[in-house]
Structure formats: C-alpha cells, structure tokens
Design brief:
The chain contains eight helices and seven strands. It is α+β, with helices and mostly antiparallel strands and 200 residues long. The structure holds iron/sulfur cluster.
Length: 200
Amino acid sequence: MSARDVAELVVQVGRIAHGSGYTDGLTPAQWSALRYLSRANRFSRTVSAFAEFNATTRGTASQTVKGLVARGYLSRTRSRHDGRSSSLEVTDNARTMLARDPWEAIVRAASALPAGARGQLATGLQRLLGHLVQGRSRRPFGVCTSCAHLEAEPCVGEGEPHFECTYFDELLEETELAQICANFEPGKNSAMKCAFSGQA
Ligand code: SF4
C-alpha cells in the first residue's frame, strides 16, 4: 500500500468521524471539547490547552467552550495552577451526553480488530501523528504513564507506590495517570516499572 493510500484512509476515517459529530444539537467542535475535557488532567482543562489539542485558535476554542457553558455542559472555576485562567469541568449533563457519543461507532469498529492488528495500527498512527506534530511545531499530548516527568516512590521496598509529576512538582493520584496532559513530554519513563515491580 502506498503512502498516499494510507493518507486517503486516514482522511476517510476523519471524514466519517467529523460527519457523525452533528448529533444531539452539538457541533463536531463541541463534541471534541467535551471528549477532551472529560479525559484531560487537572493541569490541562483550559481553553488554551483545548485549542492546542484541537488544532484551532484560542478565539475559536473560546467560542466553542462558551456555547457549552451556556447550555450547562461545562462549568468554570478559577484555575489553581494559573490564576489568570479558568479550569473547565464537564457537568453531569455532559457525561450523560458523552454516554451516547457518536464516536462510539468508531470505538466499536476498533474493538472488532484483533488485538495485534489494533496495536500495530495504534503504533503506526502514533508515529504518523508524531511526524505531523513535528512539522507544525505543535506539542504532542500524552499521558503520565509514558511521560518523562513522571516519578514513582518507593522504587524498592515496602509500601504502596506514590507518583509525582516533576514538571508541576505535585503528587498524582493513580487514577490521574491515564488522563491527557498538555505538558506531556515523551521520553524514557521507568516510573511505572519501578513502582509496580520494585526494580530501580
Ligand atoms: S507527569 Fe507528564 S503527563 Fe503527567 S502531569 Fe506531569 S507533565 Fe503531565
């Protein structure tokens, strides 16, 4: 298969995903904001982080968010990490909407693939995305479990492991490790292995 064929397939999947976004009175951008904000960590639930994630301008992202706040799908609180910006939280109404997210059809299609094929596809798409992000000087988003800033204690010895983000200098709950972060730094991370195997 040629590189152009691969590009065409990626675009076709994107078209289907985009086209399915006009449901329940929301736009694809609003669905994207709800999805992002329901998965983003506490440092990344801001308009600017969403703008960067969605490859749009801050002004456009701000309008998207404003519409969702007005409809009761998002609430704003003062950000603990940056006093000048607001932190956005998805409301219970939004979570009810997300339970019937039109993207679930794509999730089901992905689950129908054998695990090996799914892994290969994910690796290939991640690399493709890495090239695209690099070319546009955009930061990649990712999760703590593969971030260079994650540290775990104790590496050896007794006791429950605890996790720390050395970028924000904050302790992290285990439930936060799989949330999307705007400050993700791809790199060597031995914290997970260290925490759960007792090896330094
Ligand atoms: S460890 Fe990395 S991904 Fe996790 S909160 Fe810190 S900067 Fe973000």
